[in-house]
Amino acid sequence: MTELLQFFLQPYQTATTFNILLEFLAALFGVVSVVYARRENILVFPTGIVSTAIYVYLLSQWALYGDLIINVYYTLMSIYGWYMWHKVIDDKQSHISISRTSTKDKLKAFGIFLFTTVFVIAVYRYYDVMPNRLNFRESVLYAWQHLSSGSLDDFRTATPFLDTFTTGIFFSAMWLMANKKIENWILWIVGDLVSIPLYFVKGYGFTGIQYAVFLGIAIMAYFSWRKAIENQKAG
Fold first, then answer.
1. Most buried among 5, 18, 91, 98, by the most CB within 10 A?
2. How far apart are CA 38 and CA 31, in angstroms?
3. Which of 103, 84, 47, 96 lies closest to 175, judged by CA?
4. Alpha-carbon span 223 to 221, nearest angstrom
5. Within the chain, where are the H helices?
6. Closest CA to 189 of 163, 218, 162, 167
């Protein structure tokens, strides 16, 4: 237990009090935002914007540009989602309902995932964060070997590969959420499962805890939204 606490606190020994406070606030607003999302409350977007705006600043300080891109995208999609969830048509408020994805929606979500993944890989290879010598098959094997070794150092080496996956997943999830598609929660769950150990290894414990809370809320939210869809059909 003591070793785990030391592992959590060690990165913060060199951090400023201001940055520690900002990370805590960003994580707190992020959790509040997801709670509102579960309740289908439009406040998900303003609270989410506060969280992502703080993270954009912090990530620029930490030189985590892949994560920074994610949060810039989150901010833009939050503005879009705010409009979609509470837009006015012909002088009347029109609230979109929770629904399931169509084949067209699935193709769009996959297209967002694919484009984002390729873009992040290109950025990481350009800045030599990810080995340039590897083709797709070799990259998968390289990442798997380092992840399955059980070594913390090897896990850190594989983090750029995990980053590309979570970035693509979260980009797709955010687009689906903005359009109130229930499958957004499935993508959040998958991305959260990967992100929890990823952020702890990166040394950002509060953010890792945030994603652990996200995971629990996302699971509950999926069943809550599924029940809402069933009630819509019954009504």
1. 98
2. 11
3. 84
4. 5
5. 2-9, 17-38, 44-62, 65-85, 103-126, 136-147, 152-178, 184-202, 205-234
6. 218
Q: Which pLDDT does position 3 carry in this prediction? A: 55
If you write DSSP's letter for every residue of 1-63 in order, what string do you get? -HHHHHHHHGGGGSS-HHHHHHHHHHHHHHHHHHHHHHTT-TTHHHHHHHHHHHHHHHHHHHT
Q: Spell out a b/e string for 179-190, using b for 16 or more CB atoms within 10 Å of the CB, else e.
A: bbbbbbbbbbbb
- Residue 131 DSSP symbol: -
Does the CA dihedral 183-186-190-191 come out positive or negative?
positive
Residue 136's Cα: distance from chain center in Å?
A: 24
Residue 62 has what pLDDT?
77
pTM over 0.85: no
Decide: 36 and 62 in contact? Cβ < 8 Å. no
- Residue ranges of the chain whose pLDDT lies below 70: 1-11, 66, 87-95, 129-158, 235
Domain layout of the chain by residue ranges: 16-87+101-234
Backbone angles phi, psi at 115, to 5 degrees: -60, -45
pLDDT at position 206, please? 82
R_g of the chain, CA atoms, integer Å: 19
